[in-house]
Amino acid sequence: MKSSGLWKGCTVLLSIVSIALLIAVTVLTIQLKELVAESARGKTQQEETKVVSTYKSPTTPTKSVFDTLTEEEIIEIRNFMFNQPELNLVPIDQATVSSNYIYLIESVLPSKKDVLEHLDSDHTLPVRSARVTCFMGEKTTPRVEEFLVFPIPKVSGYTRYINPVQRPGPIPWNSRPDTDPETNEIDKRLVGPVMLTLYPVLKATYGYWYHNCTDRCIFFVYAAKGLVAGDRQMYVRGFRAKLDGYYLWPMSLALLVNCNGNDPSKFKLTKLYYEENSFHTAQELLIAYNNGSIKKRVYGYPPTGPTYGSPDLRGEREANWKKLPKQTEPDGRRFTVDGQKVKYLDWEFNFRLRAVTGLQVMDMRYKDERIAYEVSMADIIVLYSGKEPEGLQANLHDASWSIGARHRPLLRGYDCPDNALYFNNTFFDSGTGTAQVFHDALCLFEHNTALPISRHTSVNFYGSDNPKYLYKYNMPGSVMILRGIPTLWNYDYIFDFVFHPNGVMETRVAATGYVQPWNWSPGEAESPYGNFINREFGILANLHHHLFNFKFDLDIRGQLNRFETWDITLENRTNPLAPGKRWYQTKMNRTLRKTEKEALVSYIFEEPKYYVICNQKAYNSVGYPKGYRIFSNSFSKQLLPEGWQAENGFSWSRYQVAVTKFKDNEDTTASLYGQAEPYCPVRKFEKFYSDNENIVDRDLVAWVSLGLQHIPVMEDIPVTTTPGKQLSVVLAPLNYFDEDPTLTSQDAIVIRPED
Ligand SMILES: [Cu+2]
Predict the structure, then answer these.
(1) Is residue 2's pLDDT more than 80?
(2) Rounded distance, CA 238 to CA 219, Å?
(3) Has residue 616 got a pLDDT over 60?
(4) How far is the CA of 513 from the centre of ligand 1 (A)?
(5) Which string of b and e fits 52-77 if b means at least 16 CB within 10 Å?
(6) How far apart are CA 357 and CA 354, in angstroms?
(7) To the nearest 10°, the Cα dihedral for 191, 193, 195, 201?
(8) Which parts of the chain span the membrane according to its record (predicted)?
(9) If you measure from the C-alpha of residue 446 to the centroid of ligand 1, how many angstroms do you get, rounded to a whole number?
(10) What are the CA-CA distances from residue 440 to residues 45, 358, 416, 443 (Å)?
(11) Whole-prediction pTM value?
């Protein structure tokens, strides 16, 4: 009996254990499936960017003067240009440095006058045209030429495109961005042979080399610059390949190549840089290395598997991990889209992506009145520091790599929320010589910020009995966001154009992506140029200054506006309640800025002020001119001496706010040619204001510069984070309305206690 009871007991126990194990296995299997599904989600969503059809208007979109070029139009323009025998253009894959080939095709807006006549006076749709930028290497004096091609579609003619803002004469050959026909020649004639000569040094120093390298390859990054005006030098910098975050694995190995002219046989090595030493030739380096006159450094291999540059999850995923919260739109979307035109509550605007400079909003209206003709991203610069030539001279002009064309597919549900609409980026790709489409490159969504636009609880201070409050008021903060994220080599810039319900529009940019480190002596303890992220490999994350320029072409109740600063100063006056006592306080003084030079404003901490664009002929009910205020808490002093060499290439950064008279030719501060020729730039902002025109009651454009000093630290590894790195400019109505315009919003709530 006893043994039978024991047996029964064991059976029951085993059964319980088996059931428990079965439950545990089932639960684990379900969790594992979820984890696998989650980890696969990234991949699935990547694929989605290719296969999911993007937004299409429910009907054929209305043609707009702001439409950018379609794939078919780009190809039509390209083929038209190929058919002009006098241009003798060849496809990029057949081109050499001494060929004529197309670099860029982008739409050009008609003059503002024509556009406004069309929009406001029902004139017919102005003729659309495009600018075609060609590298004319075949000429005896090679040059860059820009052509205006028209009409679109059904192209039938072209003329030379002359922009009087740009420096006179042809666009200098040395100022062009680098392209494959040139870099391939440099690789074949110089980089390859030099690296072959240096093979023993490279192998001994890095364990990485250039030829037949399989898993231990050096790859080179090219950037066209010059040492002085008119010069063209290619900076060629070595990195360890096939590593996540390869930006974080630079080598102290660079070539400077003189590539002036159009004859690659005359390209020559200016200098070779290796582990803090400069040489004229590879042979010179080899001799110095072999005779021991330079230090023989030996770096190990990066660890196998994920390195510090890898973004893969560290550690185990928590078993009880739960999904992120999501927003919902209970009654569906509150905006409509027709082509590139958006209507959202009281807002209406057109958006477009310009190849060189990126995001633009045109004809921006609030409550049926135009507030701005244009709000655009204008230029991006990053000024690096460092001991090495690359860090020292790396003043990067992102527009020279076409900011707009770098708007790649967004990751659905991550880069933009689930409720977003997506739009494609269609552009001419200089690398392949044809139209390229990046799906889902822009997104548009409404977003509840959870920060009320306004709220108040009115407390009953004049009665001791109930009710304790008189009313509660809340206007929720929900905004429309237009987002695009260009990836420019290492950095990703998240651009948001934000439309608040109270007539406030905001442009924001947040920096993320990889920081770009350079090298520093591995044995040294400290560096004035940043923080080590990898001492063993002598890799230093260098300090740098991000600078952004935005364009605000405000048209407040028409084009004729003026620019005032409302200066806040200190006064010391008698207190009427205590005669004989003095009292300090602030006061405001409206200062009319009459000319373009008076309208160059550098931010000074001791001189707080409002920046105001207003219309002196349109008043609100109190009698104040209707205006908009430009506000930013993201100003940053650009420290380089004014007019010093490369500083000429981004002279807009001298001023935090500059207001100039509108000119069609002064469409942006950036230039394709800024990187290669910053010293005597093709386009110089100084020219916008040097004629010092009268700006009182004129059509005005405000150029606003923001900046971010960045001293990278270990937490910038692997990918630098956005909190604290988002900059913004706010356009806010200023005496434009008679009261807060959201008082008409049905989103608001007023609660009064019942009697
Ligand atoms: Cu940075």
Answers:
(1) no
(2) 6
(3) yes
(4) 9
(5) eebeeeeeeeeebbbbbbbeebbebb
(6) 6
(7) -150
(8) 12-32
(9) 29
(10) 12, 15, 10, 7
(11) 0.91
Q: Rounded to whole angstroms, how far apart are CA atoms 191 and 725?
A: 37
- For residue 332 the two structure tokens come to 């569906």
User: Using CA of residue 638, residue 643, residue 644, residue 647, what is the dihedral sign?
Assistant: positive
Nearest to 653 by CA among 669, 668, 667, 664: 669
Judge residue 308's burial from the number of C-beta atoms within 10 Å of its C-beta, 0-12 exposed, 13-18 middle, 19 or more buried.
Answer: middle
CA nearest neighbour of 66 among 11, 121, 126? 126
Q: Read off φ and ψ for residue 287, nearest 5 degrees.
A: -65, -45
The rounded Å distance from CA 546 to ligand 1 centre is 6
CA–centroid distance, residue 241 to ligand 1 (Å)? 22
Q: How far is the CA of 441 from the centre of ligand 1 (A)?
A: 23
CB of 211 within 8 A of CB of 478? Answer: no
Q: Are 550 and 706 in contact (CB under 8 A)?
A: yes
Contact 540, 529 (CB under 8 A): yes
Q: What is the DSSP letter of 167?
A: P
For the residues 515-543, what does the mean pLDDT come to? Answer: 91
What is the Cα–Cα distance from 673 to 168, expressed in whole angstroms?
14
Phi then psi for residue 390, to 5 deg, are: -65, -45
Backbone angles phi, psi at 217, to 5 degrees: -100, 140
In angstroms, the CA 3 to CA 662 distance is 102
Residue 307, Cα to own-chain centre: how many angstroms?
27
- Which residues fall inside 5 Å of ion ligand 1, going by CB? 710
E strand segments, 333-468: 335-338, 341-344, 347-354, 358-366, 369-384, 395-397, 421-429, 434-448, 454-459
What are the tens digits of pLDDT across the range 635-691?
A: 999 999 999 999 999 999 999 999 999 999 999 999 999 999 999 999 999 999 999
CA-wise closest residue to 655 among 615, 594, 604, 621: 604
Q: Tell me what the mean pLDDT of segment 270-284 comes to.
A: 96
Run of H or E residues at 74: helix 71-82
For the chain, domains (ranges, CATH) are 71-161 (3.10.450.40), 180-291 (3.10.450.40), 340-507+539-751 (2.70.98.20)
User: DSSP string covering 271-333, please?
Assistant: EEEETTEEESSHHHHHHHHHTTSS------PPPSSS-TT--SPPSPPPTT--PPP----TT--
**Cα 719 to ligand 1 centroid, rounded to whole Å:** 10
Query: What is the CA(139)–ligand 1 centre distance, in A?
Result: 41
Question: Cα of 652 to ligand 1 centre, how many Å?
Answer: 20
Contacts for 427 with CB less than 8 Å, ≥ 6 apart: 69, 74, 106, 353, 355, 402, 404, 405, 435, 436
Distance CA 201, CA 481 (A): 53
The beta strands (E) that lie in 653-694 are given as: 657-661
- Cα separation, 313 vs 495, whole angstroms: 26
- Rounded to the nearest angstrom, the distance between the alpha carbon of 530 and the centre of ligand 1 is 12
pLDDT at res. 9: 47
Answer for the pair 442, 427: CB distance below 8 angstroms, yes or no.
no
β 582-593/478-484 pair status: unpaired
- Cα dihedral sign, 382-481-486-70: negative
The answer to whether the Cα torsion of 412, 413, 416, 420 is positive or negative is positive
Query: Which among 237, 277, 276, 285 is positioned nearest to 257, based on CA atoms?
Result: 237
Which residues are known to be catalytic?
398, 491
* pLDDT averaged over every residue in the chain: 91
Amino acid at 636: S
How far is C-alpha 431 from the chain's CA centre? 21
